[in-house]
Amino acid sequence: MSGGATVLFIPHGGGPLPLLEEPGHAAMNQFLRAWPASNARPDSIVVVSAHWEEPVVSITAAAAPQLLFDYRGFPPETYEYRYPAPGNPDLARRIHGLLGGAGIDSRLDPGRGLDHGVFVPLMLMYPDADIPCLQVSLNANLDAATHVAIGKALAGLRNENLLILGSGFSFHNLREIMGKRDDSIDPRNREFESWLEQTCTDRGLDEAEREKRLIEWERAPQARFCHPREEHLLPLQVCYGIGQGPASLVFQQPVAGYIASAYQWDQA
Description:
This protein has helices spanning 26-34, 89-101, 116-125, 144-154, 174-178, 187-201, 207-215, 223-226, 234-243; strands at residues 6-11, 44-54, 57-60, 106-109, 133-139, 162-168, 248-255, 258-266. By secondary structure, the protein is of the alpha/beta class. The chain has a single domain (6-266), classed as Protocatechuate 4,5-dioxygenase, Chain B. The strands form two sheets. The protein has a six-stranded mixed sheet with strand order 5-2-6-1-8-7, with helices on both faces. It starts with 5 loop residues before the first strand and ends with a strand.
């Protein structure tokens, strides 16, 4: 259906490094900057960021959300960024209603700002900051089945002209990233990415099996090497719950020394 939502899972890089043009983020930056040109301009953007966890799923509800600089140790200018996009309180209320209708507790949060998992990629993708945006948190239980269910509840948005962005990282082992000393790709990283690509994109895969794999992702090869903690993967499970079908691989290149992927679900 034309005008329907696009669902996109992306890597957002390390803190503000993409905005500082750190060389290890060059390929990701190029992808994010180019993406809007070949996709419909959305009326609003909904972002599920890895950097917000709450005991009850929370939704930013401010009409003019501020930024939350949830990183430390970077140059002073990285704490002065502005992204004055309006919020969308009406859409926030509808998301709250969709979650409630699916039996998922949620709350509206008019005070929280947009974290770097939101404003960093959006500054690259939509630098004019003229599209309303809001953020949806993860559930702090970090349970994959819960996040697929959150996505299924939000599938009611699929007929709207939205960009629903899962902002995380398909590889997120900070100890390994910080200790990286060369340009070689760790075979454990490749193994997990191959599993993830096959799981997300194989059109011959039974849908119940695809969902089972994403819920039981810890069984994947090298899963816990790539994700010692799963918060950067879970936005993908939310995206899958919305898309409920195979995705297209739209990016797969090294980011900060490790292969990272982006997946897109288009409205049928």
